[in-house]
Structure formats: C-alpha cells, structure tokens
Write a structure and sequence with these properties.
Shape: globular
Largest sheet: 7 strands, antiparallel
Structural class: alpha+beta
Helix content: 25-40%
C-alpha cells in the first residue's frame, strides 16, 4: 500500500525564483535542471533553513518555466509541484528517516520517476517528451552539481551577504 504524503497547498504564490548567478543549468532534452545552494531568511541572523535546491524547468519554448523543485534543506526538506497555468504550488515533505538523504532521494526521483512527477505537476505533455537518453546523459552532471553545491558552497559567506 502506498504511503500518503501530507501536501501543503501553498496557493497561487510561485516559489522564490532561482538566483541566476549561483545557479548551474544543465539541459536534458525538453527539461533543464537548475542547481543552487539556498538560504531562506531575510538577514544573516534570520536564516531559517538552507541546502541544495534542484529546479526542474520546462524549457521547450526557449524560456524556463519551473514545474518541480526539490528543496533538499537541512531542517525542512520538501518538493514543490508547480502548475503556473493554474496558480498551483503544492508542497510535499521529504522525510529523511523514510526517504534517506534528501539530495540522494531527489536525484533518484529525477532518474526514476520524473515523468510521473511532471504529470502530478500538471505537465503531462512535457512528461510525454522526456528523452530517456538525454536524461541519462545529464544525470551525472546534475548529481555532481548538487553535491558540489552542497559540499563546496561557502554558506558562512552567504550568511554574511544575506545581512547586506
């Protein structure tokens, strides 16, 4: 029996956009992945959470429209399912006890369930166009970028910059 996950309907508000200068983009056919390290909070003293984010964009029309986001945060890891046409931003928690390391979990989901997850985000047309060969080719670079962001980001410098 499949375990039901708690879904939080964040409503019409889209998630915070990626910070371009700290996001690495990797194309895989009709989707583009964006990998960055994120701090949540307005000032250095108020950082509420941090960690690697993996964005999944529909890039078929030459623009990047975010459809799924894996926030592999230290305290509250979660997944966003985003349907901008319906103003939907649904959040589902990642349970580190049940799911393991959030970054490894996210990478596994992308490799094995991306089409299903895109359908859940209202992007069934995009799911049909996923190119398995392009995805297989991109995944080592996505994993490398995620772990590089996780282990080689100077979070302390980011904290200091958050207060400016």
């Amino acid at each position: 029996m499949a375990q039901e996950r708690l879904t939080f309907h964040a409503g019409p508000k889209n998630p915070i956009a990626p910070i371009e200068k700290q996001t690495e983009y990797i194309e895989a056919g009709p989707v583009t992945f964006g990998i960055e390290y994120r701090l949540l909070g307005k000032a250095a003293e108020a950082v509420r959470d941090q960690g690697v984010t993996i964005h999944v964009f529909d890039s078929r029309d030459g623009k990047r429209t975010e459809r799924i986001r894996f926030d592999c945060f230290d305290t509250d890891p979660h997944i966003h399912y985003i349907d901008p046409a319906k103003s939907v931003n649904d959040l589902n928690g990642i349970d580190p006890v049940a799911d393991g390391d959030p970054a490894a979990f996210a990478l596994d989901c992308i490799q094995t369930r991306l089409a299903d997850m895109l359908r859940a985000a209202g992007a069934g047309d995009l799911a049909k166009q996923i190119d398995p060969a392009a995805l297989d080719d991109a995944m080592p670079r996505v994993a490398e970028a995620a772990y590089r962001a996780r282990f080689h980001t100077d979070a302390e410098a980011m904290h200091r910059g958050a207060g400016k």
